[in-house]
TrEMBL record:
<protein>
    <submittedName>
        <fullName>Acyltransferase</fullName>
    </submittedName>
</protein>
<dbReference type="GO" id="GO:0016746">
    <property type="term" value="F:acyltransferase activity"/>
</dbReference>
<keyword id="KW-0472">Membrane</keyword>
<feature type="transmembrane region" description="Helical">
    <location>
        <begin position="232"/>
        <end position="253"/>
    </location>
</feature>
<feature type="transmembrane region" description="Helical">
    <location>
        <begin position="265"/>
        <end position="287"/>
    </location>
</feature>
<feature type="transmembrane region" description="Helical">
    <location>
        <begin position="299"/>
        <end position="319"/>
    </location>
</feature>
<feature type="transmembrane region" description="Helical">
    <location>
        <begin position="153"/>
        <end position="174"/>
    </location>
</feature>
<keyword id="KW-0812">Transmembrane</keyword>
<feature type="transmembrane region" description="Helical">
    <location>
        <begin position="129"/>
        <end position="146"/>
    </location>
</feature>
<keyword id="KW-1133">Transmembrane helix</keyword>
<keyword id="KW-0808">Transferase</keyword>
<feature type="transmembrane region" description="Helical">
    <location>
        <begin position="331"/>
        <end position="352"/>
    </location>
</feature>
<keyword id="KW-0012">Acyltransferase</keyword>
<feature type="transmembrane region" description="Helical">
    <location>
        <begin position="372"/>
        <end position="393"/>
    </location>
</feature>
<feature type="transmembrane region" description="Helical">
    <location>
        <begin position="96"/>
        <end position="117"/>
    </location>
</feature>
Length: 401
């Protein structure tokens, strides 16, 4: 009797283009648009670009804030294709699980490594994009495998509200700062302009349940000095609602993989986006749960998930439905090698910048004036990084975990 095999699924160009767009935004940090905005304080144009290349102080969203949730969302989108590819190779469940656990560990360790590059010793921190994904990835695989086995979404859809409601309750039950609270241990003040009032104050910076957890958890590791607070308000436990973002991506990936009509798929994506955005805004404006990316509130999971569905819809329509792949080639080059792009963006910018100063002169970047220096050097760095990725793409050198 002949053994039946399943053909491996083809790459979806729109997903690669969307992932490339996300990584491009991250790589483009080398442009340092904030410096240009400071040099031209009266320019609304540079102020606008600076805002969208920066994280908002607490509540709200900029384009830059959508990088991490998009990357996490796309991990979920890719999972059904990854599982199908492994099934086509007749891999056993045990082998798939071993790969999943290995990938999870590598992502966590890589995230810690990249965060430790400019430290005197290992910086054990777990709020990095890679570590957050790594901690939630085994659970995502378990949900994906279970729904693949039963061909139903009940478990996946059921897990999402459990995660979000449970995480919201964890914050809501943690006591608010009292009159004798020591604000010096938080890196903020009682009158910080971005502090929320009323019930929403449970999600204020470095006075919340996740901050309290990190004051215990992160001090279990060797540190240069005891951990008191994260300056940006980020926390380890954000991996839990980040898992919710990955689950939304998993749902989108299953719909995409099984789609028989592009029109129906786009309608499904857009309706889901609308529902998620309406729910998020309702929670936010009623004061039940604010939209805060830095601690990944449940409302942020819904809001960023809605944005991710919209972006995926746009790329799917342009790249796959309208077949404009050639227009998005620069992004596809980046998106097909996202881990390489991540490492290059995080670790090679300073080296390339220094090399240009050595070979082109210390003041090569002031050719258009001091105000545009960071833009000139950043553009050259960005182009150099893209050329490296393009060379890898042409040579079919892909870093996979």
């Amino acid at each position: 009797m002949k053994e039946t095999t399943t053909l491996p699924p083809q790459r979806v160009s729109s997903v690669d283009a969307y992932r490339g767009f996300v990584m491009f935004l991250m790589m483009a940090e080398v442009l340092r648009l904030g410096r240009v905005a400071e040099a031209f304080p009266e320019s609304a144009f540079w102020a606008f670009l600076d805002f969208h290349q920066s994280h908002v102080p607490w509540v709200g969203c900029s384009l830059h804030d959508l990088i991490q949730p998009s990357f996490s969302f796309l991990v979920g989108v890719a999972l059904p294709y990854s599982m199908a590819s492994r099934a086509s190779k007749n891999q056993s469940v045990t082998v798939m699980w071993l790969h999943t656990l290995r990938r999870s560990l590598i992502l966590i360790l890589l995230g810690i490594f990249l965060r430790s590059m400019h430290s005197e010793q290992t910086n054990f921190t777990f709020e990095d994009t890679l570590t957050q994904i790594g901690m939630g990835y085994p659970i995502l695989f378990a949900l994906g495998f279970a729904s693949e086995k039963t061909q139903r979404y009940t478990l996946v859809w059921g897990a999402l509200p459990v995660i979000l409601v449970g995480y919201a309750a964890f914050f809501a039950l943690y006591p608010l700062p009292g009159p004798d609270f020591d604000w010096s241990q938080t890196g903020t003040t009682a009158d910080w302009e971005h502090n929320l009032k009323g019930f929403a104050a449970h999600w204020n910076k470095n006075t919340n349940a996740a901050w309290a957890f990190d004051r215990w958890f992160l001090n279990l590791f060797p540190r240069e000095k005891p951990f008191e607070f994260n300056g940006g308000g980020y926390s380890t436990l954000s991996f839990i609602p980040t898992l919710g973002t990955m689950i939304l991506g998993l749902i989108a990936g299953k719909w995409l993989k099984s789609a028989t009509s592009s029109t129906l798929l786009l309608k499904r994506f857009l309706i889901t986006a609308a529902v998620l955005l309406v729910l998020a805004l309702a929670f936010h404006f009623t004061g039940l749960n604010p939209i805060v990316k830095r601690i990944w509130t449940p409302a942020w999971t819904l809001f960023s998930g809605g944005c991710a569905f919209l972006l995926l819809s746009a790329f799917y329509f342009a790249v796959d439905v309208k077949d404009l792949k050639s227009w998005f080639y620069p992004l596809i080059v980046i998106g097909t090698n996202s881990i390489a792009a991540y490492v290059i963006a995080d670790g090679f910018g300073s080296f390339v910048r220094g090399s240009f100063k050595i070979h082109l002169g210390q003041h090569y970047d002031t050719v258009f004036g001091e105000g545009y220096a960071s833009l000139v050097s950043g553009a050259l760095i960005l182009f150099t990084e893209w050329l490296i990725l393009r060379w890898m793409y042409k040579k079919k050198i892909f870093i996979k975990i």
